[in-house]
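Holo model, fructose -6-phosphate. Inputs:
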Amino acid sequence: MNMNHKNNIQSSIRNPLITFINGQLTGADVVHQVKTLIELNGIFEDQTMFEKMNGSQIAYEVDVWCPVENGTEGGLFFGLTHLYPGQVGNEYFMTKGHFHAVENRAEYYWGIEGEGILLLMDKDRNTRAERMSPGSLHYIPGFTAHRVVNTRAGMLRFGACWPADAGYNYDIIMNEGFSKRIKNIDNVPSLI
Ligand code: F6R
Ligand code: MN
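Output:
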């Protein structure tokens, strides 16, 4: 094989645009979002305790890769959430939680590092909980609100993959919450 031919073959094989190694998502198109505690105002039960806390501390960070434009039917987005450890009163740090704006859109979550609980609530406000740990895989059906709670002292990292046209509806959860909470009762995460 002559050198030109060999170079052509090699140059037709691209390097990956994004890498997902050791719980980190890296690449030019990855968007990094930071959510501080103050942005979660209203989701914790103990508001008095919440107001005593440092609102500028980070509650979670999200890395998102959107290979297609937001709203593209048939496209997929990929995300990595880094949820910090902490408590507000006896309630653990957690994500805001949402339904999708296009309500029937489903999603996968999977545990990468740390331990926690995925709360799932259907439109009738029935809430169920799944343990999340490295390797756990969670199918979130359509019409189901989802929130992750970090129940341990270390970081909780989880992956997500969802339709590019799913969007977010945060209002229902902001206004009405989930019908159940995860609380630290005598050092045991309990669904209440
Ligand atoms: C996307 C998705 C996740 C969350 C992320 C942060 O549909 O479910 O990427 O957006 O874990 O949680 P929220 O969006 O509830 O603040
Ligand atoms: Mn979602």
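Residues 98, 100, 107, 146, 162 surround manganese (II) ion (ligand 2) (CB under 6 Å). Helices lie at 3-11, 47-52, 171-176.
Archived with the compound record.
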